[in-house]
Specification:
- With 539 residues, this protein is α/β, with parallel strands linked by helices.
- Among the domains are: 260 residues, Rossmann fold (3-Layer(aba) Sandwich); 69 residues.
- Helix content is 43%, strand content 17%.
- An 8-stranded mixed beta sheet has the order 8-9-10-3-11-12-14-13, with helices on both faces.
């Protein structure tokens, strides 16, 4: 008796199924504003750290703004509050002991501090400089979920300490893949569903790549690999084919077969196609949830009905495909997406000039040096093409040549996408090269800000003058360098009035009595100093 042959499942159509209208409407990518739009506005931001010795007023009224496509430099000595400003904007200040106390932080008219006043209550401790903080953890958790709509795609950050920002348990490719799925997942799945692995032009393109590999011409190999990626509709496959042929070298005769074998990952079975469509629907629901959170922060009101509908839609989607959560099934049907994310991670590592990106992508953070980890973190921050990039000392651990390449990547992102950049650094030469405006920060307050050329040519505040006088200049080789006497004050007991007056050579009695107002001393050039009598700068 003949054994019956299993019936093959019919191939699912290429068209991507739709989800509910509310999800489709909310998951639409928001349009980026025009040039000159203020994308981030910080006003009177205050961040305190509640310690056993007392309350550290790390930020005490910081005001700044960044426009689309603009680079704002933030400079100052160590301990002035530059990194705390970045963490406060993204609400990453560790609590306890730190907490954003008040002020305004707006991203495209969305109040990022929405619900802040309900998170904690403060009670002064009698006969001491301490404060007792009673936290409402349910409110804190709800606001942290709301901030997930902002972190990554809207505001991305390059941290100063890469060893603390990377998870030592997961590989580099896993961590980069997580960022790609969170912020560009639907586009990646659409690319897999629309790939053309059986294109007639694929075989000639593979032969051209193999021939360039035999001649060991890296430039022609890269061009042929990029062309192959365009033919099959997958740039990541072009990167995979390039490394297959490069590893084979000039002596191998089977490189073409290896590339053909790798091309099979783009041929999706019906179960794999259904799994990708299921993942795409979940990604759209997550994106719609993030857009709902942003809309809540704009209106400063919670839309509970829309939240319940989205939560129910996600629950129905997951429960109707619960078999995809089985370990064996998930590994089999999810392999095309996993491979696609791996090779996209390799392309990200190529963009930050890592010499062996395939090996690095398979490795773990403890296997890399500090400079390599810094570049991995930069690739992770740039991968989502954010509206705002906060770069906290992004080139400190890098060589000079790599610094130039990283700064060029950031400049390209600014011109191509319109990303606004907040650049925090001690290197005034980097600020002069890439920044459009600069803010000089001292002891938790902004003391001077303006166009970078105006501030460098005519620094007004004595602190800004001291910073510029302490760096060497090529046009003045005989210039004697000077330093600012003293150090940044203790912010538990900051000086009264102007916080710089204990170190200022021009200090007057009025400097000890009240904080100087920010005055207008030129087009977009403001300074907080009693030496100048200009009009009070508008808020």
């Amino acid at each position: 008796m003949a054994t019956p042959q299993p019936r093959e499942e019919p191939e699912a159509p290429t068209a991507v199924p739709r989800v509910e209208p509310i999800v489709e409407e909310l998951a639409k990518a928001p349009e980026r504003g025009g040039p000159g739009e203020v994308v981030l506005e910080v006003k009177d931001l205050k961040t305190y750290f509640f310690t056993y010795d007392g309350v550290v007023k790390a930020l005490d009224g910081v005001t700044l703004h960044i426009r689309r496509g603009e680079t704002l430099g933030l400079v100052g000595e160590t301990g002035c509050g530059k990194s705390v400003t970045a963490f406060s904007v993204t609400r990453l200040v560790s609590d306890p002991p730190g907490r954003v106390i008040g002020g305004k932080v707006r991203y495209r008219n969305a109040n990022l501090l929405f619900g802040l006043e309900q998170e904690a209550k403060f009670t002064p401790v009698p006969k001491s400089n301490r404060v007792k903080v009673k936290r409402a953890f349910r409110r804190i958790r709800s606001n942290m979920q709301r901030m997930s709509a902002v972190r990554g795609r809207a505001i991305s950050m390059i941290f100063q300490e890469p060893t603390q920002a990377m998870n030592p348990v997961f590989s580099i490719s896993n961590q980069l893949s997580e960022v790609l799925v969170l912020h560009r997942g639907p586009e990646i799945v659409d690319g897999l569903l629309k790939a053309k692995p059986d294109a007639a032009e694929a075989r000639p393109a593979i032969e051209a790549l193999v021939e360039a590999g035999r001649q060991e011409n890296r430039v022609e190999m890269r061009e042929a690999a990029n062309h192959l990626g365009e033919v099959v509709g997958s740039a990541s496959f072009g990167a995979q084919a390039f490394y297959i042929v490069r590893a084979a070298g000039a002596a191998s005769e089977d490189a073409g077969k290896d590339v053909q074998r790798a091309l099979r990952r783009l041929r999706l079975s019906s179960s794999q196609r259904r799994y990708l469509q299921h993942q795409r629907r979940l990604m759209l629901i997550d994106r719609a949830t993030n857009e709902l959170y942003l809309e809540e922060m704009r209106r400063q009101a919670v839309n509970r009905i829309a939240r319940i509908r989205l939560r129910g839609q996600r629950l129905r989607e997951r429960s109707s495909h619960i078999y995809y959560r089985l370990w064996g099934v998930r590994n089999r049907v999810g392999k095309p997406l996993k491979d696609e994310l791996f090779w996209r991670s390799v392309r990200l590592l190529e963009g930050v000039s890592i010499a062996n990106p395939v090996q690095v992508a398979r490795g773990f953070p403890h296997e890399l040096s500090g400079g390599m980890l810094q570049r991995v973190m930069i690739a992770e921050a740039l991968s989502s093409e954010p509206d705002i990039l906060i770069a906290d000392e992004p080139t400190t651990a890098l060589d000079v040549t790599i610094q130039a390449q990283i700064l060029e990547l950031m400049r390209d992102l600014k011109t191509r996408v319109g990303t606004a950049i907040l650049l925090i650094t001690h290197d005034l030469a980097v600020i002069a090269e890439v920044a459009d405006r600069v803010c000089v920060m001292y002891a938790g307050v902004i003391v001077e800000q303006g166009p970078v050329h105006d501030v460098f040519r005519r620094p007004l505040h004595p602190y800004a003058q001291g910073l510029l006088a302490s760096i060497p200049r090529l046009d003045q080789p005989d210039k004697q360098l000077s330093s600012i006497p003293g150090s940044v004050p203790d912010l538990i007991h900051p000086p009264s009035g102007c916080r710089f007056h204990p170190r200022c050579p021009y200090a007057m009695p009025v400097c000890k009595e009240a904080r100087p107002p920010m005055t207008q001393e030129g087009p977009q050039h403001t300074v907080a100093c009693y030496l100048y009598k200009g009009p009070v700068a508008p808020e």
